[in-house]
Design brief:
The chain is an alpha/beta fold. It has 2 domains: about 100 residues, 3-Layer(aba) Sandwich (Rossmann fold); about 190 residues, 2-Layer Sandwich (Dihydrodipicolinate Reductase, domain 2), CATH 3.30.360.10. The strands form 2 sheets. A 7-stranded mixed β-sheet has the order 3-4-2-1-5-6-7, sandwiched between helices. Helix 1 packs across helix 9 and helix 4 runs parallel beside helix 6.
Length: about 325
């Protein structure tokens, strides 16, 4: 069996290190793995399986000999180095937002639209974390009943903002518990400890935040429904890992909670956690460290045609980023 040489760009960040972890768990035939990052991380080491891998400076490195490059270094790194990796023979799977809306670049959740890879593209975009977990639910339901509208409120953990987000929540919480009055916010626009706020990214002239706009446009592209009505309200919450979503969906055909549970139980990346009599539903702690999208509270939505409402939770670093990238590979 042919073995494939991998490179991970942004290997020292939260998503990049999770990519290395998941590559180490997978059964993919891996030949070698290179860890690449910006100059300030050059010379450090990252873990891969039982090894320590030296981190190379992405700006000084060649991608020759690399079969698949997983990019988790942010939009600037992807814009600067992804085209070079493709030119040197690699297939690039990019976790940034740099290429998601490029009509020539497939935007893929393999369990939903793997056919988008049939054109042999060498640059592939990994969707936004919140989009991935929502699409994992919409995909099988859309095939059955045809989605006609989506409304979602997200409750997103601070790990979505990287290591700085984790540090800020931890530091502010410690300061608050010690009686601190004024809590400094550098990573987030508002205090995150003992608080939440409906802003992830900046706002556009229509009042959408960056994160909300991503969810709208990416959902339409993945489902090939360019006019699909999608409303998103994205909220940052004081949770370390895993994102949650309150999701409402309308369909062109009659739907039911019972049939939805059946369909979602068959989806390879979904686990139904829905037994309200016994108080069973998913929470962020349940999803942390998992590769499944957890769904519960599945019920009728009387406010929309053929509507269903549900609660969706997933690990944003794994299923919402690294796992999906490795699944594309």
């Amino acid at each position: 069996m042919k073995k494939y040489n991998f490179a991970v760009v942004g290997a020292t960040g939260l998503v990049g290190s999770t990519m290395l972890k998941i590559l180490g768990e997978t059964s993919l035939p891996i030949g070698s793995v290179r860890a690449l990052a910006t100059g300030r991380s050059k010379g450090s080491y990252v873990d891969f399986r039982e090894e320590k891998i030296l981190v190379e400076d992405v700006a000084q490195s060649s991608f020759k000999g690399v079969d698949i490059a997983l990019f988790a270094g942010g939009e600037i790194a992807s814009t600067d180095f992804a085209p070079r990796a493709v030119e040197e023979g690699a297939v690039v799977i990019d976790n940034s937002s740099a290429y998601r809306q490029d009509p020539q670049v497939p935007l893929v959740v393999p369990e939903v639209n793997a056919s988008a890879l049939n054109g042999g593209a060498r640059l592939i975009a990994n969707p936004n974390c919140s989009t991935i977990q929502m699409i994992s639910i919409l995909g099988p339901l859309h095939r059955a009943w045809e989605v006609t509208g989506v409304s979602v409120a997200t409750y997103q953990s601070v790990s979505g903002a990287g290591k700085n987000g984790l540090d800020e929540l931890r530091g502010q919480t410690e300061q608050f518990l010690k009686g601190g009055v004024s809590l400094d916010s550098k990573t987030f626009p508002r205090q995150i400890a003992i608080n939440l706020f409906p802003q992830i990214g900046s706002f556009n002239e229509d009042g959408l935040s960056t994160e909300e706009e991503k969810m709208v446009l990416e959902t339409r592209k993945i489902l090939s429904l360019p006019a699909l009505p999608v409303l998103a309200t994205c909220v940052r919450v004081p949770v370390f890992f895993a994102h949650s979503e309150a999701l409402q969906i309308s369909f062109s055909q009659e739907s039911s909670p019972e049939k939805a549970r059946e369909l979602l139980k068959k989806a390879p990346d979904v686990e139904v956690v829905d037994d309200l009599i016994n108080g069973v539903y998913p929470t962020p702690i349940d999803a942390e460290g998992q590769d499944k999208v957890l769904v519960g509270r599945i019920r009728r939505d009387p406010t929309r045609p053929n509507g269903l409402s549900m609660w969706v939770v997933a690990d944003n670093l794994r299923k919402g980023a690294a796992t999906n990238a490795v699944n594309i590979a």
